[in-house]
């Protein structure tokens, strides 16, 4: 007779299925931008990867650096003020 499988051979119905047909779901997701971005980021132009997309990346990078330097200076000033004895 042999062994019977413990697990049913039919797959269960999906719990979180979509109610849209596949064509509408694909249209909702839009165009796949990954191949285009791969071309941009793999281009050999001597730029670091965090600056490859031009002006928006430079703006974000410079803002981050300014906030980092400003925060460091603020912390050093706060530590200096906290280290001074209070006058009575």
From TrEMBL:
<feature type="transmembrane region" description="Helical">
    <location>
        <begin position="59"/>
        <end position="82"/>
    </location>
</feature>
<dbReference type="GO" id="GO:0005743">
    <property type="term" value="C:mitochondrial inner membrane"/>
</dbReference>
<keyword id="KW-0999">Mitochondrion inner membrane</keyword>
<keyword id="KW-0496">Mitochondrion</keyword>
<dbReference type="GO" id="GO:0006123">
    <property type="term" value="P:mitochondrial electron transport, cytochrome c to oxygen"/>
</dbReference>
<dbReference type="InterPro" id="IPR039297">
    <property type="entry name" value="COX7a"/>
</dbReference>
<dbReference type="GO" id="GO:0002082">
    <property type="term" value="P:regulation of oxidative phosphorylation"/>
</dbReference>
<dbReference type="Pfam" id="PF02238">
    <property type="entry name" value="COX7a"/>
</dbReference>
<comment type="similarity">
    <text>Belongs to the cytochrome c oxidase VIIa family.</text>
</comment>
<dbReference type="GO" id="GO:0045277">
    <property type="term" value="C:respiratory chain complex IV"/>
</dbReference>
<keyword id="KW-1133">Transmembrane helix</keyword>
<keyword id="KW-0809">Transit peptide</keyword>
<protein>
    <submittedName>
        <fullName>COX7R oxidase</fullName>
    </submittedName>
</protein>
<dbReference type="InterPro" id="IPR036539">
    <property type="entry name" value="Cyt_c_oxidase_su7a_sf"/>
</dbReference>
<dbReference type="GO" id="GO:0097250">
    <property type="term" value="P:mitochondrial respirasome assembly"/>
</dbReference>
<keyword id="KW-0472">Membrane</keyword>
<feature type="region of interest" description="Disordered">
    <location>
        <begin position="1"/>
        <end position="21"/>
    </location>
</feature>
<dbReference type="InterPro" id="IPR003177">
    <property type="entry name" value="Cytc_oxidase_su7a_met"/>
</dbReference>
<keyword id="KW-0812">Transmembrane</keyword>
């Amino acid at each position: 007779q042999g062994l019977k499988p413990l697990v049913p051979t039919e797959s269960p119905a999906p719990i979180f299925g979509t109610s849209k047909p596949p064509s509408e779901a694909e249209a909702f997701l839009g165009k796949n931008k990954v191949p285009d971005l791969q071309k941009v980021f793999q281009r050999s132009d001597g730029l670091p990867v965090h600056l490859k997309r031009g002006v928006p990346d430079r703006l974000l990078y410079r803002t981050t650096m300014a906030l980092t330097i400003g925060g460091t200076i603020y912390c050093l000033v706060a530590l200096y003020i906290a280290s001074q004895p209070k006058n009575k």
